[in-house]
Amino acid sequence: MKNKKTFEFPAVLAVLLAIASFQGGAAIAKGIFPVLGAVATSSLRIVLSAVILVVFNRPNLRSLTAEQWGLVALYGLTLGAMNIIFYMAIARIPLGLGVALEFIGPLTLALTTSKRLADLLWVLLAAAGIALIAPWSNNGLNIIGVLFALLAGAFWAAYILLGGRISQIMDGGKAVATGMIFASVLVLPIAIKDGLLIHFRPAMLLPGLALALLSSAIPFTLEMHALRKIPAKTFSILMSLEPAVAAFSGLLFLHEYLSFREWLAVALVIMASAGVTLTGKKNAQAEDELTLKDI
Fold first, then answer.
1. Around 20, how many Cα atoms within 13 Å sit in the side-chain half-sphere?
2. From the centroid of its chain, how far is CA 2?
3. Which residue from 97, 132, 99 is spatially nearest to 267, judged by alpha carbons?
4. CB-based contacts of 233, cutoff 8 Å, min separation 6
């Protein structure tokens, strides 16, 4: 009797869709920023995402073990801190520089967890691309903004590690939904202090919901699925596509034309992501062959 094959959503495709979803959310956020500000907008996104995910996934909180509670709480607090600190960073420094500095976190994670020479090559290619994209020549750079971006990068690396661990002991959707509750508890007081309740208008609810779906609910769920399938270092290098996608989005939707140096940066980042994907598939096939030989 032949076993029926069930469809498995590809992990790499999940990462790519998550990145595209983030970019769609960023376009909506630009319309809310002038009224609410960066911090309150980020907090609104997280709180609405938590509501959507809890309603959709209906996590059974009573069934969680002590280990699951500990990990999901840390995951949620890390997720909330990562988002709010990054928004604090880009309120002080250019977005391009903020993204480049934040990505140092996942890049460092990919480098420190790598054991193969090929992985090091992809990390170096991605690092070169990020360095070329970043507007390092800006004068009068806000040092607090730079430190916030680096701190957000550290939280990003922790988010990847925690997401990988929790995806092995909990259903991905329920883990993200529960984690977002903890993220909301962290960011909501900051948002209220920043004027969320004062400046919020009912007309912002619909774009706020769209922002929550595109920038949190959908991508975080896709990333949790991917982290269950691929190593943290592979995920970290694939996320280097984020600045490249941002560059293409800027050209298509905002008519932000890139210089030769910036297009070279995009090419390097794409090469790194393609390289880690291809070598990852070869390694997985090799491991499967070795396993079959042992049977």
1. 7
2. 39
3. 132
4. 109, 110, 113, 114, 119
The closest of 134, 44, 147, 137 to 89, measured between CA atoms, is 147
Give the residue carrying structure tokens 């997720």.
79
Task: Give pLDDT, residue 172.
Answer: 81
CB atoms closer than 10 angstroms to residue 260:
7
- State the pTM of this model: 0.75
Distance CA 269, CA 204 (A): 35
Per residue in 222-237, pLDDT (tens digit) is 888 888 888 877 787 7
Residue 30 DSSP code: H
Question: The tokens 């997985």 sit on which residue?
Answer: 284
Residues 6+ apart with CB under 8 A from 159: 75, 78, 79, 82
Give the residue ranges of DSSP H helices in the chain.
11-36, 38-57, 66-90, 95-102, 104-112, 117-133, 143-166, 172-193, 196-199, 205-212, 218-229, 232-238, 241-253, 260-294
> Do 252 and 202 touch, CB atoms closer than 8 A?
no
Q: CB–CB of 31/178 below 8 Å?
A: no
Q: Return the exposure string of 82-108: e unless at least 16 CB atoms fall within 10 Å of the residue's CB, then b.
A: bbbbbbbbbbbbeebbbbbbbbbbbbb
- Dist. CA 56–CA 250, nearest whole Å: 32
Map 50-65 to HEC letters: HHHHHHHHCCCHHHCC
